[in-house]
Design a protein that fits this description.
heterodimer; A: 148 residues; alpha/beta; 5-stranded parallel sheet; B: 308 residues; mainly alpha; globular
């Protein structure tokens, strides 16, 4: 693991994209930043602009309107960027997978680095997923591939 | 040769960036303690800076002035660095400074916010221009108070416009020891708050409202330089206030310990105000400075005139 990888995983800034979510995953993601779970211990903080982001959290089922926005967000993000799909809807579509307006799970639109399943996943599960992602060796290499 | 050392190593870039990073860590750590959290590790500001500088891609906006967009952070860094050197040389008693350096410091301290405005306007982002417009209004409101504060200090130290003379005027009693000094100190703390964009006055970069406002388009190395400027400004302004109210800093012997305590007192006060206040609207902030803070400075000038 090189120096750049080490620096990168020590300071992950998170941008949160909520698709057509039922808000349970949003609440659990916010729970991670609260005093009980405190993700700032690992240098993770929530940023408001995609230009500052290192991690793109996507939750909720992605419908046809969200799809364009998600693609655009991914193109606007400075590389390397990690994409994390959170919750059953983000990972696979969940109960919406047969819906008329469903535009595919996140990995059919942009490349996904980690899946955190659950409906909604517990904050502990989200933290475990982020830690696994940060420790994955090939995490950053995949990012530099040209997609879309 | 000695000037190069001054500007790049000791009171200059390397020193202020290091101390500024430590203070920035302290800011996040104290914030975490206030919220009963654990907070980030000690090297977090370094990680953030290096990640932005080395790892991340720098994106330039398609519809904007690219040169100005990329140069603005450098201007800001330049202003903050020059201000810190001109403040710290007399404060540490390395160099006597020059007559009228207080006015030069005043102008140099405006450069970083002006650079943020230029960068935001050059980015072509609507939210950034909202942030820039708010930053302009904020500058208009606090700069008048700041120049009044400096003139009150000049009056208090016997009509001298030099940092060294102001420090020398405090050799018996420091300015914070008098009633007018306390009033001026309150004003100075709020001006620091506004200059750093800390919470009661973070109108220009409201994260939840206009997504970092002026800085919304910055990424990669350009944002790294902005972050570095913010670290330096945090240290520069606290060192300035510690110098002009607590009678100078020192780097040798027990003086070093006292200097650290002075800096910590100012910084922790600023951080606690940041953590216990909501964001003001721009009109409220302008009224706060135009009416109340200016009034406070004028009262303290009158008190100084009568010898309090």
């Amino acid at each position: 693991m090189g120096f750049k990888d080490f620096i990168f995983k020590k300071s992950l800034w998170v941008f949160h994209f909520g698709g057509a979510s039922c808000n349970n995953c949003d609440i659990e993601i916010l729970d991670c930043l609260t005093p009980r779970h405190d993700l700032e211990r690992f240098g993770i903080k929530l940023v408001g602009s995609i230009r500052h982001a290192d991690v793109l959290l996507v939750n909720g089922s992605i419908n046809k309107k969200d799809k364009d926005r998600l693609e655009r967000l991914y193109q606007q993000a400075p590389k390397p960027i990690l994409v994390v799909a959170i919750g059953a809807c983000g990972c696979s579509g969940g109960i919406f997978s047969d819906s008329l307006f469903f535009a595919g799970p996140v990995n059919r639109i942009i490349p996904v680095d980690a899946y955190i399943p659950g409906c909604p996943p517990k904050p502990e599960a989200i933290i475990a997923g982020i830690v696994k992602l940060a420790n994955a060796k090939k995490g950053r290499k995949k990012q530099n591939e040209k997609v879309l | 040769m000695r000037e190069v050392f001054y500007f790049l190593i000791f009171p200059g870039l390397a020193f202020v960036a290091t101390i500024g990073g430590v203070l920035s860590w302290l800011d996040r750590k104290v914030t975490a303690w206030v919220q009963f959290r654990k907070g980030p590790p000690f090297l977090q500001p370094l990680y953030d800076f290096l990640k932005l500088l080395l790892v991340k891609e720098t994106i330039v906006p398609a519809k904007g002035s690219i040169t100005l967009f990329l140069m603005a952070p450098v201007f800001g860094l330049f202003g903050a660095l020059m201000a810190s050197v001109f403040i710290l040389l007399p404060a540490f008693n390395i160099n006597s400074g020059f007559e009228g350096d207080l006015i030069v410091i005043f102008y140099l301290l405006i450069i970083p916010p002006l650079a943020y405005i230029l960068g935001a306007m050059a980015s072509g982002n609507p939210l950034a221009s909202v942030g820039a417009s708010r930053e302009i209004k904020l500058i208009l409101s606090y700069e008048l108070t700041f120049i009044l504060l400096l003139s009150a200090l000049v009056f208090k130290s016997g009509m001298t416009v030099s940092m060294r003379e102001i420090i020398a005027a405090q050799s018996e009693t420091v300015f914070i020891g008098s009633i007018s000094g306390v009033l001026l100190f309150i004003v100075a703390i709020f001006i620091i708050q506004a200059k750093l964009g800390f919470v009661p006055f973070d109108i220009a970069e409201a994260e939840t409202e206009i997504n970092h406002g002026s800085f919304i388009e910055y990424s990669g190395s350009a944002y790294a330089i902005i972050i570095l400027t913010k670290y330096i400004m945090l240290f520069t302004l606290t060192a300035f206030v510690a110098t002009i109210f607590f009678g100078g800093l020192s780097i040798t012997g027990m003086g070093a310990l006292y200097s650290i305590l002075k800096l910590l007192a100012v910084v922790v006060l600023v951080i606690l105000i940041k953590n216990t206040n909501p964001r003001l609207r721009i009109g409220q902030a302008m009224r706060f400075f135009f009416l109340w803070m200016n009034l406070l400075v004028i009262i303290s000038i009158v008190l100084t005139f009568f010898g309090f």
